[in-house]
Design goal:
Layout: H1 3-17, H2 26-39, E1 48-60, E2 63-76, E3 84-94, E4 105-108, H3 115-123, H4 126-132, E5 138-146
Antiparallel strand pairs: 1-2, 1-4, 2-3, 3-5
Helix pairs in contact: 2-3
Length: about 150
């Protein structure tokens, strides 16, 4: 398992489902990620596998925005080596004005009694509800790894 394999698996899943990335709303992204998590195994039986919901403002040079992400995090454990978190998911970028009063937030499905409880928690969050009320600036697939 690595970041590119996980991201390729997500891309393949979305293509099989006929999901148009540029047309995804927060709701469609959340449901697609929940289905990918529910129906697709990572192949690494010794790894922790959770969905992560996070949001935060961001800035790069003169560009600013608000990121709302649903990611799959697979934590690989190899004896004698540091843990590695592999991530792949969907990030929706918004104009930051509607979200200025919201700070950074992150939760994962392992903190909830089940996937449905996690999905409901995301759906009732202020950032998710606000994202449903407006148009996004863009949608991207995101992947990477952290040690």
């Amino acid at each position: 398992m690595n970041a590119s394999m996980l991201l390729a698996d997500l891309q393949s899943f979305l293509e099989r489902r006929g999901v148009a990335l540029d047309a995804l709303s927060a709701e469609a992204a959340l449901l697609a990620m929940a289905d990918w998590y529910r129906f697709t195994r990572t192949g690494d039986s010794g790894a922790d596998d959770v969905l992560v919901f996070r949001h935060a403002g961001w800035s790069e040079g003169c560009a600013t925005g608000f990121k709302l992400s649903v990611l799959r995090r697979v934590t690989a454990r190899v004896p004698g080596q540091p843990e590695t978190d592999w991530l792949a998911g969907i990030t929706i970028l918004h104009d930051p004005a509607r979200f200025a009063d919201l700070g950074s937030f992150s939760t994962d499905s392992g903190q909830w009694p089940g996937l449905e409880a996690f999905v409901r928690a995301v759906q009732t969050s202020a950032a998710y509800r606000r994202s449903m009320a407006g148009t996004s600036m863009g949608v991207v697939l995101e992947g990477g790894g952290l040690r």
